[in-house]
Amino acid sequence: MEKLLEVKTLTKVFTMGSILSRVRLTATDNVSFFIKPGEIFTLAGESGCGKTTTAKIILGFEEPTSGAIIHNGKDRAETKGKKVWQEEGIQAIFQDPFGTFNPLRVVDRYFFETLQNFKMAKTKREAIDLIDETLQLVGLTYDEFAGKYPSEFSGGQLQRISIARALLTKPNLLIADEPVSMVDASLRMSIVNLFKRLKEETDLGLLYITHDLATAYYVSERIAIMFRGNIVEMGSVEQVLMSPRHPYTQLLRESIPEADPKKRWSSAITLSELEHEEYMRTGCKFAGRCPHVMEKCKLEMPADVLVDNTLVKCHLYKG
Ligand SMILES: Nc1ncnc2c1ncn2[C@@H]1O[C@H](COP(=O)(O)OP(=O)(O)O)[C@@H](O)[C@H]1O
Ligand SMILES: [Mg+2]
Fold this sequence. Notes:
Mean pLDDT: 89
Order of helices and strands: EEEHEEHEHHHHHEHEHEEHHHHEE
Number of helices: 13
Structural class: alpha/beta
CATH architecture of the domain at 5-83 and 211-313: 3-Layer(aba) Sandwich
CATH class of the domain at 5-83 and 211-313: Alpha Beta
Bound molecules: adenosine-5'-diphosphate, magnesium ion
Largest sheet: 8 strands, mixed
Shape: elongated
Distance between the termini: 24 Å
Number of strands: 12
CATH superfamily of the domain at 5-83 and 211-313: P-loop containing nucleotide triphosphate hydrolases
């Protein structure tokens, strides 16, 4: 089986605090998953579970503490360098489309610049044609967008524009970090449908990061549920979301915690007490909230167990 992206035992440890009270937090703890070409893979979990950290490492914005990122069969460690991720065909879109574009610049400049940087068009006409073609993928045209500032678009339109900008360089992997959490509920489905259409019409692989299980179920084939740095359950969306095995997935399905819209991509680091306590646990990080907690859970981190092809990290299950 061909893999577009492979994330192998990825670990990221952050060290915070003063010299006197140093805190080490493993935001991504031995995380492994893969994405096939033309597949939408979801990484889901409540705010502060390590989704963005994982995305940043895949994009090369953060260095991993250990583990490997393999894209197009090439190990990231061997292709180091600025913007390598872009040239390799990875693009990203983020939660807040208004944060993506400078409010004082016309949006089309970004498109022309990108084409220039990637040497994709020789003349202005060629550039306009390429831009128009890409905008049509997201349901817009060049004429509707030329010469306009970000404030002249709605949030939903601007998110579609940021998707078009990401697609301009024809990436094979798109990382979408909470792309619909700041978009009106009424427009959410149009963005999600766009992802679905793109993956059906092209070979684009998508890492869809969300805390919204409904859209995850709708667009993706496989899903990984993250909790405090660990993937606690991973498998087909059907299995994981319709018959969840892990007590955390069961809880998540009933109450989907909303991501804080103020918490941006480069958010200030403030840990809630609960979050902190859970990250510091020795055994299962969910033990403090789990209705099925056993003595063992507080002492030992559970191993990954395969139950009907679904990976579950929980002491309730035996391999
Ligand atoms: N640069 C950093 N320094 C220290 N801690 C960080 C940093 N970035 C993220 N964290 C912490 O790592 C944990 C996971 O964060 P993040 O990956 O942003 O989660 P999510 O995207 O799932 O909300 C959080 O507790 C967060 O506070
Ligand atoms: Mg995040």
